Amino acid sequence: MKTTAKEIKPYLEMPYNIIIQHIVDEGGNYYYATVLEFDGCMSDGTTYQEAFENIQDAMKGWIETKIENGFPVPPPIIKEKYSGKFIVRLPKTLHARLAIEAEKEGVSLHQYALYKLSV
Asked: How far apart are CA 49 and CA 67, in angstroms?
């Protein structure tokens, strides 16, 4: 059965995480758009606005395909539910290496680990 715009609209009004990156590579100068929650949903455009409009169209098609094939459409990832804190267990040798590197840099182990995770 064909999915209607009415069925798709509620999903498009949800706060999905659209990521638009400015790319300059051998393919040229363009904007590449993806949706964090929708694996494989992507588009591009020559301008930021065009990439945004194109990803909206791609989202419609992605959602429509999921619904028509009986697959669930994932909910948006809500960033507010994350505290920014988690516990990591690591081997003693890695712990020692990171602590030594942090000391060399003159920062705390926590600051150094954050730096290493963010690059």
From this structure: 27
pLDDT, one tens digit for every residue, the chain (119 residues):
677 888 999 999 999 999 999 999 998 899 999 999 999 999 999 999 999 999 999 999 999 999 999 999 999 998 777 788 888 899 999 999 999 999 999 999 999 998 888 87
Instruction: For residues 10 and 70, give the distance between their C-alpha atoms in angstroms, rounded to a whole number.
Output: 17
Strand partners, 18: 35
Q: Which domains, and CATH codes, for the chain?
A: 5-68 (3.30.160.250), 83-118 (no CATH)
DSSP state, 18? E
63, two tokens? 């959602």
pTM equals 0.66
Q: How far apart are CA 43 and CA 79, in angstroms?
A: 23
Q: Strand 42-45: give its sheet, edge to edge.
A: 18-25, 28-35, 42-45
How far is it, in rounded angstroms, from Cα 42 to Cα 54?
9
Q: What is the 3-state secondary structure (H, E, C) of 34-54?
A: EECCCCCCEEEECCHHHHHHH
